[in-house]
Amino acid sequence: GINMSAISISPVIMCGGSGTRLWPLSRSQHPKQFLSLVNNTSMLQDTLLRLPSTHQSPIFICNEEHRFLVAEQVKNTSVNVPTILLEPEGRNTATAVALAALHSIEQNSEAFLLVLAADHVIKDTKKFHQAVDVATTVAQQGKLVTFGIVPTHAETGYGYIKQGDEKGDGTYQVAKFVEKPNEETAQAYLTSGEYLWNSGMFLFKASRYIEELEK
Q1: Is there a cis peptide before residue 88, judged by omega within 30 degrees of 0?
Q2: Do 119 and 15 touch, CB atoms closer than 8 A?
Q3: Inter-residue contact 151 to 197 (CB < 8 Å)
Q4: pLDDT tens, 53-96?
């Protein structure tokens, strides 16, 4: 096997989001990732708590108005000095991740990034860690890995990933990413068994990601 501890993985936590979905509980100054919805810790703190202990200190990407909220929340966890990268303006995930990738490569040219959202609820931490381990093995072969979630119902609020060829270890080639479907399409996706919910989580070598972006 691979000596996993020799691999440097930096979690990148996307704290963007304007908080419109749970308004008025979350407003733009205090979006949902900073709220305690599931237990006494906020979703952002839960995201930190479930990280494997072997990972590097996380990199947070947020906008100017949330930087102090992020710093405040991190202070109440075991994370040492966090790196907080500020987006001058809200772009999409690809550019935000590029910031993190360039930052990590400066520290370590061999860095891997585990891109996470600050607002996920993941109940089974052990399973999450296993998925990250499998993804790491694949990412070392230069692949960009995304995490799909086996759908439990015909959800129209998420994007989906169509599974392509099986690559072993429960990994698949991505056949395509599809936008949020309507009810009928979502039902068809569910029935086919070939579609996963797109979690928006990724794992890849930072330098590989930059190469792909350049293309």
Answers
A1: no
A2: no
A3: yes
A4: 778 888 888 877 777 777 777 776 666 667 877 776 666 778 88
